Structure formats: structure tokens, C-alpha cells
Amino acid sequence: MEDSGMRIGEVAERTGLSVRTLRHYDEVGVVSPSGYTPGGFRLYSGDDIERIMLIRRMKPLEFTLEEMRGFLDAVDHPDTPGARKTIALIRAEAATRLEKLRRRVGYAEEFLRLVEDL
């Protein structure tokens, strides 16, 4: 990739993630930039940003980086053995975790109402 794409600071601003988090994702192989400038700066494509946003959406559901990587590998290669099963398992787990999260938000809202009445 030539000097086209977004630099890491721009991606951090757009995604709401920190530069440190984006670097960590690159180091552990969850999402890496598609290219680099001649000076060695990371450059992220639109597809890279979509992948980062998918990861960001998984974070509140507390998926591990390993689970995210496995899911993304399955999405990237849906015809490989086990990919559809991985996607189905993550889908089911996401639904379960979302329900737990909704319940926790409900408790937090109840608490806030109680505190406001003090």
C-alpha cells in the first residue's frame, strides 16, 4: 500500500479506541494495518477499520482476544472446516452475553434511581 489510508491516530479518533489498543491488536494479530508509509507509520484501509469496529462491538460482551481472533478467522475464511460452527457458537454466546449485559444495565438503572431518591 502506498501512502494512502488512515494513520493510527486518525483510526483511534474514528473508532474511539486508543492508539495503545490499536498497537496491541496489531502485536497480538487480531487486526493489523494493511500497509505502512515509507517512514514506517501504520496505514489502515477501510476494511481494516470495519474489522476494528467489529472487534469494538465484541468488547462489551467480554470476548477474549483469542475468541475474537477465532471468530474473525472464521469470518475471513467461511469455507474452512469448523468456520460455520465457530460463527454459530459466537452468535449464540453473544446472545447469551447480551442478555446478561441487559440485566446488569437494568440493575445499574435501578441503583441510580435509588441513589437519586436519597
TrEMBL record:
Pfam families per record: MerR_1 (PF13411)
Any GO MF annotation of the entry: DNA-binding transcription factor activity
Residue intervals of the HTH merR-type domain: 5-74
Keyword rRNA-binding: no
Keywords: DNA-binding
Leader sequence segment: none
Record PANTHER family: HTH MERR-TYPE DOMAIN-CONTAINING PROTEIN (PTHR30204:SF93), REDOX-CYCLING DRUG-SENSING TRANSCRIPTIONAL ACTIVATOR SOXR (PTHR30204)
Protein name in the entry: MerR family transcriptional regulator
Organism: Corynebacterium hylobatis
